[in-house]
Give the backbone structure.
Amino acid sequence: MAIVKRNVRVGRPVSQCKLTGDNRLILCVDLQHSRVVKILNAQTQESLGGFKIEPQIKSPFDLVVASRFLFAYNRAESAIEQYKLDSGEKIRNFDISASHTELSAFVVSENAERFAMSDKRGVFTFWSIDGFQPLDRAEGFEPISLIEISENGDRAAIALKNGDILIARTDDLNNRLPLQLHRSGITALKFAANYLIGGDIDGRVTVWNAENGKLLRVYPLGGGAIRCIERAFDDRAAIATTDGGALALADINRDQKPLALDALSEGLTLVTFDRKTGLAVVVTSSWNLLFFDLYADKAIETFLTPPNGGANSKRGAAIKVIVADDSVTMRRMIAAALRASFPSLEILEAGDGKEAIETLEKNPDAKIMFMDWNMPTMDGETAVRKIKEAKIYPNLQIIMATTESGQEKVKQMLRMGVAGYLVKPFRRDAITKIAVKLIERIGK
């Protein structure tokens, strides 16, 4: 049973609840004809201010909190309004009337750089918030009930009211991947690394490979429809709430029964989680906020510990790692750092991008690749693009190494779909740290 730190009475329906990662909790509270945005200290629950949203709000998706902003769908004016969370100032008003009639779903990426929306005519559009330019448009969709955008903005998951789910590349919305699905109405979607996690009306949490659409795991929770799913613990787990008042933790890397964190007599409608502090906040159907300290729960620690007991010397067994760098010294340094913590790893070396692809073709079961950006014959960027285009290595986790740490370079690498990056020169402990996360992610 998770530890409840505090129970706070709100007194009004809550349509949005979001921990922003800077010790703030954002609440969107319903009034009769508008919404009030309340900002609380996440640890003490003291008020840090707030402001009012005037547009008439009809659906939960009409308000979205992303990064340092709040986005409101003004149905009367067919516009998206952007507000600063710290001041309540409205800074933009995006007219969407030329592209859409009344919206049926609307979402903003976590970094507040992308929109995705659909309307009742079956039109789906994907936008850049900078300049508010449509990046792509697709028509002919069945009615859409839910949209989710991946963290780096390269994919959108689209749930149709008939129970189907599609994954589309956001640069090519007409190229849609249908998911293998036990047909049931989808009530929640969340991307986590290379996974897509869904919740359905029958109380099941389902995990798919987001690259190839393969159904990986189904966790039956029961207790009514899944209301909300939140990523947790470095993408190794997901917290889900159900209509029936259950809060559960599922390790999406492994087939094991979800851990029941709490069960209440009243329904749970929303959950938000801070991966840095371990704080989870749940909204109940009677407008209470429950604050859980998940890192203080020994049962959770045991649940998330790998089967081998978590010792680094035992983890990584039978995992192949490809290290691609034109510098022999750098390859040996990375290999030595990996072997020091994970003696069981099988490490393969490549001198450039072409050799890396050839090594991967001979070892398609490789799980991790360290790829240098600048190499002769074929550079790392070209090699990664070829690997991604092949679409036959969905489980390969790629780490890019580069001498450039600029924001645009980082965004470029993340758009390529890599699992992470290292900026040269880097220390051996940086290699160990990122390897621990990757090995935990692939469930070893």
In short: The longest strand covers residues 3-9. The CA atoms of residues 323 and 370 lie 5 Å apart. The radius of gyration is 22 Å. Residues 309-314 have pLDDT under 50 and may be disordered.
